[in-house]
Predict the 3D structure of the following.
Amino acid sequence: MARIKYYYDTETCKYERVKVKTQDVILNFLGLSSLIVAVAVGLLMLYNSYFESPKEVMLKNEVAELEYYYENLNAEVNKLNKILAALEKRDDDIYRVVLGAEPIDPSIRDAGIGGVDRYAEIRNKNIDHKELILSLSETVDKLKRKMYIQSKSYDDIVQLADNKAKMFAAIPAIQPISNKELIRLASGFGNRIHPVYKVKKMHTGIDFSAPIGTPIYATADGTVTKVKVRFSGYGKLVEIDHGFGFKTRYAHMHEFEVEEGQKVKRGQIIGYVGNTGLSTAPHLHYEVIKNNKRINPVHYFFNDLNPDEYEKVIELASIENQSLGM
């Protein structure tokens, strides 16, 4: 119940009841309300200066969690970069050196992607931690580009290795007949006494003396391009194209075991020793041709000879004696 207030009226010498105006009530209410609001705002500001709101706590936790995941992702990217760097070094310093290829230029490995700003969409967005997102995006994109270049390099290496293997298989690296005792080499490459004309002439191959019917082996992988029968000169002849500029020729044969167009492997029997054509005794005349030039076959007998045996074959081939045929 509201208190009733009185005042003493000197004119009437009586206590009169105080009459409160509506305007005064409103003003008093507004003043009190303003004071309450001011105190509340002050208390709220004081509270916020010392204590975090639930929303702030939630946002701070989210930021801390995002930073944690960012650091972990960044650490993983750095690990991948180190692994990739090791692969690049092995690629340049081992694989390409062994296969005779030039290392990839660092400027190619580290090249960026030109053109428009790839990260414009991120830059234009009003998002928190924009710089962290941009930095990680750029790092990941660079890693992806380097991995792509490395994968292409491995494709090249596989191709190089395949070509190198084919090239090794194309080198005439064994003797064309079995010669373990090293007694079959009868005449070497170079100027030798011709068996018919008895004058020194260029002998363009190596003669292996052997009984008629002794197996003759292909000295490298290749394709048979000639199977000829002549009554003079080379007599019965087989020629094999090994690719990479290499050809071999086998002359004065007795019988053939191959035909033109046939694929052969190193060590495969292609025929047998004979005494056909311009020949004075059963033997195999063997030639090696590199880039259309006949060269000394003895320099290629390294697959089936140890160093001492190879030296002995070189010595025997250097003796200037009489050849057994063309």
